[in-house]
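Try it yourself: sequence plus adenosine-5'-diphosphate, in.
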Amino acid sequence: MAFLTLDNVSHYYFSTTGYTKALEDISLSIDEGEFVSIIGPSGCGKSTILSIIARLMQQTEGHIKLKNEPLADSSLNIGYMLQQDYLFPWKTVMDNILLGPKINGQITDQTKIHARQLLADVNMAETENDFPSELSGGMRQRIALVRTLITNPEILLFDEPFSALDYVTKLKLENLVAKLMETYNKTAILVTHDLGEAISMSDRIFLMETAPGRIAKTFEVPEELRNEAPFFVRRHPKYQPIFDKIWKHLNDDMSDENKGVTTDERNN
Ligand code: ADP
Ligand code: MG
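Structure, out:
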């Protein structure tokens, strides 16, 4: 059964002088427990899709269903994690994590125990009394992940969460996130600029084209790669062929301006 479906979703941004058609006829469906990625040039509408699924704004046209219910009517939690961690600097790690449940009036005796369990899951057990400024970028993203998971979201949305991190930290976090999503059987959508990251973390990849943002092509990641940790996917014999196949389409669809961005990634 499809867990999340988008049917002919289009989105316009209106201004006093005109409008931008950011998304055109996006249709896709994601199964429970599936991990999918969205890749494509800057401005193709990746963040717009995630903001709509996160219910931060409503699509101009089309229908979205989560667990067979219109998304707008559903009260299910949706987790959203961005490149910037948005931790409050004046609050400790634990207080940052408990903020969501507190605002939602969902704090129980179990909440702190759950928070400690999640902190241990991301190897941050000793940090609950630390302040964000005492932590590295990678550690802060792990806290942001715990803060997202504590609300027990039905689906996790990741908008380039690793792109500000150094390469080694990024690889470690990819492994950790992939492991956690599998352990807790979470459904996830990752937006990334990094094709290697998309292949190594996902079951399927949606490639978008721009102006207006549309899904140009969908790729299935080979079974053998899906069962490997992201770090090992990159060394698997099946990795390079799928990389080259998607890479070819990326370059066909991208403007010259964007080609430079992914050439750097190719060297990663
Ligand atoms: P991506 O995340 O793929 O880089 P976005 O979803 O941020 O793309 O943007 C898609 C298109 O919508 C771009 O043309 C962008 O300029 C435009 N856009 C995004 N946010 C806004 C906004 N708040 N107001 C007007 N236009 C926007
Ligand atoms: Mg974006």
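One thing you can check immediately is this: The first strand starts at residue 2 and ends at 14.
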